[in-house]
Amino acid sequence: MPDRLPSLTALRAFEAAARHMSFAQAAAELHVTPAALSYQIKSLEAHLGTPLFLRLNRAVQLTEAGRTLAPGTHEAFQTLTNAWRSATRLQDNTTLNVTAGPAFTAKWLAPRLYDFARDHPEIDLRFSATLRLLDFDRDEVDVAIRFGYGPDDGLWSLPLREEWVTPVMTPELAAQYPTPQSLTRAPLMFDDSIDFLDPPCDWPTWFRAVGIRFTPTHGPHFSQADHAVDAALSGAGVVLGRRAMVVKDLHEGRLVAPYRVALESKARFRFLCRPGTENRPQIAAFRDWMLREVDKTASVHDTLDIIPVEEVPPA
Fold it and tell me: How far apart are CA 15 and CA 287, in angstroms?
């Protein structure tokens, strides 16, 4: 049996036919006639020395050899497709595909994008707001903004800023609850999106940080941080606001953080891209813009007493 690989054209015909389980559909996808596709598959079978398909009256089935060959050819052509897309994207300095979580997109990116779009009209921004970890090659992603601890193996990673949580509320609500002790009687809300943090940055931990032993048991829970912040903006209650989600509202006075104490987590938002692409014009422009935007609200950090969560006394 020859070790020499058959032609890519024949392998491509087989991969499409095996994926569709139809010569006609495979031929349509490859823009060839069914006869031409059938000829390529027959030449592949002749090269291998065994049939790859059982030809039935109105259908085809893979033989054992076909079932063995199909996964590898599919993966190989998918890899080639991804590599080609990546290579062609290197020639495109005007499109920027960004993925970030829905909450970060709603509360951090969207309210600030006007300035970026005004300063960079040549860049066509495309956003995918999802918690699913998209693949940089398969999903044609240029930049990902992710929150957590990492590691970000195989990626160029830039932490954006330390992340903390502190009780936030409207100024009107803050007037009703002027001290941390009075907060135990306030309508407290829960952002469940940070439940994965370890050590936890939750209400019991924050109360311990200010010297109060209190574990709230009632109040609305939100799976998305932006929904929790929107509820706080409406005056519905008090939430432990995450820096990235509330800093703009704090800076502009829609929310206040009256008790100063904030818990800092080692988890971070990170700016991620493939190594070697960090200085591509559109990626560098977006990165530098994000860093400037972070600096605009840095004064909020100076108004707080930041306590690493690891230093809070245990329960």
Answer: 40
Burial 273-292, CB ≥16 within 10 A → b, else e: bbeebbebebbebbbebbee
In the prediction, which pLDDT does 85 show?
A: 76
Task: Spell out the CATH class of 8-89.
Answer: mainly alpha
> Distances from the Cα of 296 to the Cαs of 95, 199, 301, 305, in angstroms?
26, 29, 11, 19
Name the residue ranges covered by the structural domains of the chain.
8-89, 163-262+300-311
Q: Which two three-digit tokens encode residue 138?
A: 């398969």
Distance CA 251, CA 248 (A): 5
Mean residue pLDDT across the chain: 93
Write out the two tokens for 198: 């370890």
Alpha-carbon distances, residue 160 vs 13, 71, 127, 146, 284 (angstroms): 47, 41, 19, 10, 14
Look at residues 73, 291, 266 and name the one whose alpha carbon lies nearest to residue 151. 266
Task: Give the whole-angstrom CA distance, residue 161 versus residue 186.
Answer: 30
CA distance linking residue 234 with residue 25, whole number of Å: 55
8 Å CB contact between 119 and 113: no
* CATH fold for the domain made of 163-262+300-311: D-Maltodextrin-Binding Protein; domain 2 (3.40.190)
Which helix (H) or strand (E) element contains residue 66? helix 64-89
The two beta strands, 95-100 and 143-148, are parallel
CB–CB of 240/201 below 8 Å? yes
159-202 residue pLDDT tens: 999 999 999 999 999 999 999 999 999 999 999 999 999 999 99
Q: Which residue has the tokens 């209190």?
A: 214
SS3 readout for 107-153: HHHHHHHHHHHHHCCCCEEEEEECCCCCCCCCCCCCEEEEEECCCCC
What is the Cα–Cα distance from 242 to 298, expressed in whole angstroms?
14
Phi, psi for 217 (deg, rounded to 5)? -120, -10
- CA 33 vs CA 14, 29, 40, 276: distances in Å: 14, 10, 11, 42
